[in-house]
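Protocol step 4 of 6: structure prediction from sequence.
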Amino acid sequence: MRITILFGGTNTERLVSVASGQALHRALPEADLWFWDVADTVHEVASQKLLGHARPFEDEFKPGNRGLPLEAALDKAKSEDRVLVLGLHGGRAENGELQAMCELRGIPFTGSGSASSNLALDKVAAKRFAAIAGVATPASVTLEHLDAAFAEYGKLIAKPARDGSSYGLIFVNAQQDLVAVRNAAKTEEYLIEPFVSGVEATCGVLEQSDGSMFSLPPIEIVPADGAFDYAAKYLLKSTQEICPGRFSPEISAALMDQALRAHRALSCSGYSRTDFIVSAKGLVYLETNTLPGLTAASLYPKALKAQGIEFPDFLRDQITLAERRSRERV
């Protein structure tokens, strides 16, 4: 099968996706490059065009040629016997829509399937399923009880309920922040929770082509300015990501156990990464990512390295899994 890296997308995380596309291409130099742009068209891209894009986290990538509508590009992928390596994040790329379009055509792709992708990106539903699996989840606050919750807890956090948390994250520390949440909730659904103090942590789960599934070493995150938002993740060098994290053996074991529980509860495939807060009262679940970042500086590749797994080997294993799952769906 022809290996094709699909990167870009129509949502706010498309800049990160371009950086993931660069890292994927360096690991799979023989792969074709397809860029999905905000106009919902897919463009073939030359290697030098992608690798020469110097500031992917800040500047929009412009393919410079005409593309095919997304559905036509997927028909082309099917007819040309391609397997898609997804360097995509958030939005329609991670909510299961793209995955469903591929599944209906019988196109192999890396990462989780349509149903689990849709479930995991819906933070409200994902919390319920994680809780069923025994993962500790925080309380939820309704918009109607926003003022009362702020008075009770003193600090809240709000994030888009059906998208990544790099963008749109609101820390509610004062009355004016309540206004910001209500305004944001007019255009999309928000998940609101009590703010939990503690150390931010994340833990990846890996499924290999031999059938084994296990958690990777947990990562400790020390964000710049205290908030792990888009700027802290991708722009500020003062953010620290320590792998393996400086946790006690008991906490590390708990993070690995709960990440695996979340992965299974949400029926994830291939790989995932689950985020937590390590509070004074124990672990608190934040969310599960079915297409975590794969940039050169991303958390999941760091965990792979700590586990002793080379990035190209990881990708080739995921391609093997994708081809096998596609055959099983027929």
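Step 5 (inspection) to follow. The mean pLDDT is 92.
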